[in-house]
Amino acid sequence: MNKSLLGLIAAVFVTGAASAAVVPAAPDVDKCKADYPRAALVNDEEGKVSMALLVSAGGQVKDARVEKSSGYRTLDKAAVKSVATCKFTPGTKDGAPADTWTRVDYAWKLD
């Protein structure tokens, strides 16, 4: 059985106060992948991790928080670690690059 990572899903949403002048940061999905954690493979663990990310005006993750767990600490930690190293297209406020909160879901699926 081939076991692999499904990957980054469910785009990006602004969290917090809504404002028409705020555009959230967006991940480079093709370059934001993680290896399935070995312990999760052995235990046949799958799930989706929902995270809130604070992305800097330069496109780096400044803060990452799990908002909804996959149900497995190993998968949650691996998702946060992977997304924290991803490069993002910076969000904007009033047309200028700015720190913005973004929501990202990361799904782990075994084939």
Q: Mind telling me the C-alpha Rg?
A: 14 Å
Number of helices: 2
Distance between the termini: 7 Å
Number of strands: 9
DSSP helix fraction: 10-25%
Reading side by side through the largest sheet, how are the strands ordered?
Answer: 1-9-4-5
**Overall spatial form:** elongated
Mean pLDDT: 85
Structural class of the secondary elements? alpha+beta
In terms of per-residue confidence, which ranges show pLDDT below 50 for 5 or more consecutive residues? 1-19
* Biggest sheet statistics: 4 strands, antiparallel
Strand content: 35-45%
SSE order, one letter for each helix or strand: EEEHEEHEEEE
Describe the structure.
This protein has 111 residues and is α+β, with helices and mostly antiparallel strands. It is 15% helix and 41% strand. The protein contains two helices and nine strands. A four-stranded antiparallel β-sheet has the order 1-9-4-5. It has a three-stranded antiparallel β-sheet with strand order 2-7-8, with no helix packed on it. The protein has a two-stranded antiparallel sheet with strand order 3-6. A hairpin with a 5-residue loop joins strand 4 and strand 5. The longest helix has 12 residues. The termini are close together. 25% of the residues are buried.
